[in-house]
Every structure is written in structure tokens, then in C-alpha cells.
Specification:
The complex is a heterodimer of chains A (119) and B (107). Chain A is mostly beta strands and 119 residues long. Chain A is 0% helix and 49% strand. In chain A, the strands form two sheets. In chain A, strands 2, 4, 5, 6, 9, 10 and 11 form a seven-stranded mixed β-sheet that branches. Chain A is globular and about 40 Å long. The relative contact order of chain A is 0.31. By secondary structure, chain B is mainly beta. In chain B, strands 2, 4, 5, 6, 9, 10 and 11 form a seven-stranded mixed β-sheet that branches. Chain B has a four-stranded antiparallel β-sheet with strand order 1-3-8-7, with no helix packed on it. Classes of the chains: A mainly beta (119), B mainly beta (107). Chains A and B meet through strand 5 of A and strand 4, strand 5 and strand 10 of B.
Amino acid sequence: EVQLLESGGGLVQPGGSLRLSCAASGFTFSKYAMSWVRQAPGKGLEWVSGISGSGAATYYADSVKGRFTISRDNSKNTLDLQMNSLRAEDTAIYYCATAQHYGNFFDYWGQGTLVTVSS
Amino acid sequence: DIQMTQSPSSVSASVGDRVTITCRASQGISSWLAWYQQKPGKAPKLLIYAASSLQSGVPSRFSGSGSGTDFTLTISSLQPEDFATYFCQQAKSFPLTFGGGTKVEIK
């Protein structure tokens, strides 16, 4: 059974940093691209960042480019998101997700971790 | 970036009703479109991928159609468990983008 478990969320001050992690199990982690998708309170979904199975290719939304860094450790089956220079508008639930069946259609999601940026 | 525009933003319907939600892409995306259902406090769930392919385990009352720039999600006979928010997503190119969502509410 595919499982994705996020951790690392919490309260951080504007300008601060936070590192999110996603522990994956139930599938061959290195074969699949992974993404982070966020949802601000009461708002819609926003794709944040993605990384290829090997980790060689990374992609970012314009809203986080230069501030967030996605990475993965295929030996530990973990996906990370290093978030720097955090802003109030980064407040959201952050989900890790994977598209295993076809294209970039996310068929598996974690339960999410809440990041709150506030002073 | 490809912008995704969903309409309506909300719809009130009764059990048994047919509900249609539309999604328009700012440029052609062929069939690179997905539909998700999200219930409060839960992660999104994939319903439809590649514009019209039903994800395994999803009831057949859900269907998707369209290609290019205009897409439709149809619920043929609304059930109590279908009251939720629905999002479209383009998977043609990075950055991946979602529509703003359509909340299906009880009439």
C-alpha cells in the first residue's frame, strides 16, 4: 500500500526557514517523480515544486522560485522541501504527492502538514 | 504559465441531479487534464485523468470530456457523498496549475 507521510510543519516567523519531509513507502520510490502541493486556509490548490525520480530535474512555481528547494534521498525514501525567506502568504497545508499511473496526474497524496508563517 | 479557469465557483444541487463543471485552459493542453474531489480536512482524490479516463475505484457516475482548451466534469446522478469541492489540473507543462475549484453544495 502506497503511503506518504509529511512532517516538519509548524509556526515560523516571517523571514524564517522550515524544512518539510515526506516519508514514502509501499512503492519503488526512485522510479517516480514527486511533488509538493499546498493549500492556503480556505483556498484552492497550488502546485509548489516537483522533482524527477532520479532527482536530476527539479521544477518550481514562480511564487517560490529562489526561496524553496526540493530534494530527495532515494536511499531513505524521503522527499524534502527546504523553505527559506518565508512569507505570510506561504501559510498553507503542504501535501506531498506522486503520480504513479500516468503523466503528472496525482493519484497518491499524503495527509498534509500545516505551515503557519506569522509573528 | 497555463491558467486554468473553472466555473461555476459553486453550485447548489439535490441528490439525483446531474451536475456539470467546466474548466478552461488559457492555451491548448490536448488531453492533459485531471479532475480531483476534495472533502473538508482531507487530501484531494483523483477522479479523472487524461481528460476522460476514470481512475480505478471511482464510481461510473463521474465522467470527463473535452480536449484542447475546454473540459467538462459531469456527475450523472449526484449522491450524498459527492458533496465536496472539485478541482481541475493541467499536466501539460510545468508549472502545473489547478483551477480555482467548484464547491458542490446541498440544495
